[in-house]
Amino acid sequence: MAIALITGASSGIGEEFARQLAPAYDLVLVARNTARLGQLRKELSAAYGTRVEVLGADVSSKAGRAPVLARLTARDEPVSLFVNCAGMGYATGASRNPVDDEMYMLEVNATAKIHFSLTAVQAMLARGSGSIINVSSVCGIAPAWVDSLYGTSTAAVLRHTEEMAYSRALRNSDVRIMALCPGDVLTDFNNRAGIPNRTDWGWVDVSVLVRVALADLRKGKTVSIPSARYKLLSFLIRTLPNSWSRLYGFDLGQQHPGIPGPES
């Protein structure tokens, strides 16, 4: 059976990818929370007979990323689908968060994801096939969140994905790469960042998000923006001058202080 490797698989979007891919793939699940991954392994193995490998890793450092990089480049059991999902955020502004915390977020959300993605691209090109989903954000399309480096980090992932997707190397191959740009999704990510989960027009169910993303990957899309509301919002913020974000952008600097922990 083909193998899918998913980072950030202990909760949220990564966990939902694991659930939806389990019937068709053997899985390599990556996160810091190996206890939670162990529980998920038992559940998915019992339900689908899926072979699940648990890989503990802290993606915030080069040394911590080493086990994932080794697994992405393994030749004996190659990864056919890589879901690059581990990420984090803060509910407070970059203007008052400790600088080291902001740099930590850039390391997790941008450096680690691009490190993994480029490694997977080269390994898949050498084999001649494979697919990558890099989880970015609508916030990476334009400055929808201001006083924040979250958009900065997700913009880097989006731009990297597009630059690789449009390259001759990938266009002349059977390797596919796609950026997934969610808006607000009902997951534990929001609770950890101190953002309330409100059931209003803006929130997307995580199962719908993953189902649409996988369908878009099969269609060969380079950027997946699930839900019509976020497709429209993305079109508008791409069209408007970035300076207008002063009028429509969500300013994290106006939120209450407090530094939440990262998504694992």
Protein model, in words:
The structure is a single chain. The chain has one domain: Rossmann fold (3-Layer(aba) Sandwich). The chain has a seven-stranded parallel β-sheet, with helices on both faces. The protein has ten helices and eleven strands. Helix content is about 45%, strand content about 15%. The C terminus is likely disordered. Helix 1 links the parallel strand 1 and strand 2. The protein is of the alpha/beta class. Helix 3 packs parallel to helix 4.
Q: Topology, pairings included?
A:
Layout (H helix, E strand, L loop, with lengths): L2 E5 L4 H10 L4 E6 L2 H15 L3 E5 L5 H11 L8 E4 L14 H29 L1 E7 L9 E2 L3 H16 L2 H4 L2 E7 L3 E2 L2 H6 L9 E2 L1 H13 L4 E2 L3 H12 L5 H4 L1 E2 L13
Parallel strand pairs: 1-2, 1-4, 2-3, 4-5, 5-7, 6-11, 7-10, 8-9
> What's the β-strand tally?
11
**Helicity level, as a percent range?**
40-55%
- Describe the global form: globular
Note the run of SSEs as H and E: EHEHEHEHEEHHEEHEHEHHE
Q: Quickly give the CATH architecture.
A: 3-Layer(aba) Sandwich
CATH superfamily: NAD(P)-binding Rossmann-like Domain
The value of Rg in angstroms is 18 Å
Unreliable runs, pLDDT <50, ≥5 residues?
Answer: 256-264
- Spatial ordering of strands, largest sheet: 3-2-1-4-5-7-10
Write down the overall mean pLDDT: 87
The structural domain count equals 1
CATH class division: Alpha Beta
User: CA-to-CA gap between the ends?
Assistant: 27 Å
Task: Give a quick account of the main beta sheet: strands, pairing sense, barrel closure.
Answer: 7 strands, parallel
Secondary structural class? alpha/beta
Number of helices: 10
Strand content: 15-25%
- Remind me, CATH topology? Rossmann fold
